[in-house]
Prior knowledge:
- The structure holds two protein chains of two kinds.
- By secondary structure, chain A is mainly α.
- Chain A has two domains: 1-79, RNA polymerase sigma factor, region 2, helix turn helix motif (Rna Polymerase Sigma Factor, Chain: A, Orthogonal Bundle); 80-162, Arc Repressor Mutant, subunit A (Orthogonal Bundle), CATH 1.10.10.
- Chain A has helices at residues 3-22, 25-41, 52-73, 82-87, 104-109, 113-124, 129-136, 140-158.
- The longest helix of chain A is centred in the middle third of the chain and has 22 residues, at 52-73.
- By secondary structure, chain B is of the alpha+beta class.
- Chain B has two domains: 5-106, no CATH class; 118-227, no CATH class.
- In chain B, strand 4 and strand 5 (171-178) form a beta hairpin.
- In chain B, helix 1 (5-12) packs across helix 3 and helix 3 packs antiparallel against helix 5.
- Chains A and B meet through helix 1, helix 2, helix 6 and helix 8 of A and helix 1, helix 3, helix 4, helix 5 and strand 6 of B.
Amino acid sequence: MRFEEELVELLPRLRRFARGLARDASDADDLCQAAIERALKSQGQWQQGTRLDSWMYRITRNLWIDERRATGRRGVHTPIDDAVMQVAGDGAAEVEAGTLRGDVDGAMACLPDEQREVVMLVLVEGYAYREAADILDVPIGTVTSRLARGRDTLMHLLGEAA
Amino acid sequence: MSFDPATLAAFVDGELDDLTARRIERDAENDPALAAEIARHRALKTQLVAHYAPVADEPVPERLRALLAPAATVDTSLAGRREVKRARFAAIHWGAIAASLVLGLTLGLRPWVPAASVTEANGAVVAAGPLAEALDKQLASNQQPGAAVRIGLSFQDKDGRYCRGFESKSLNGIGCHDNGRWHLERTMRGQAGTDYRQASSGELAAAAAAMMTGDPLDAAAEQQARDKGWARR
């Protein structure tokens, strides 16, 4: 199959992954567009016989991280609503369980980037720990510990039985 | 619980060796607290998968598709239209995969094991079998001394749902009636020894107090709520 055709088949999944990372639908498609352009340009670096999906996910994720760092440096903040702001980050555990019941977007927004990407890869995209570690270029232990923290926060905020 | 949280998570993620996974499955059959913990993890996964699945079902925007089109011209040829058709099928295909995945995750722990007291529905951990029956029917004011499930306080939570505390040999908790099912909002291990039971009852009472609006139901109100099928007021 042509490289481009394989990429087209990946697009629905890639858009889903990008949506989880970028949260906003049009930001997510911008991210996908940048990833496709990058992939076409660096096609030569992809080794035939290795998994194209992992390679694409890695490109997408790295572009997203670059983008996050760039906006961070410029001091531009993505608008986040107040309710989410109050529970964001490490303070999440102190918030009453179930505060964001049913609000998956809101709960995901509370996770630090490095936990959100692991949650997306393993829980939503269904990658094995090893594959997620390869995509993120971190040790497998880092994947499991970030996943555990992300999971705890999500369960707490989404309000499943404590 | 004899398994640490990391092992349980790995079990739910399909990362354990077969031997350990089978041990957990076997233990969960006789340990509702463990089964509830597993169901809780599965429920989160189900909820996340279901939440993001529709994105993969959306038609891919033309601006993305165009980047990968064989020629960067608008294609009105028959082949082009076939391509569009194929793309639509592709979307349906992904939907089917996502749906079957959700279904697979929702199908409880071991459906063939009879009378489990905990299962999972629509991403929530809910009571089943004898526990669901006790929560539905049993009145705190009138229970058999030897009943398998002991109903404690009944009350209404902040959303107006009827909630009931319960204790049984292997599992204690609080169930809240929502859309015809008892959602298990709190679960803890049932009485192992008397000391434990005491501690667990205290914890349960504290949880109930935090969830409650108004006073707990008295015997008359409890019976009335039951007769109306625990429909929220």
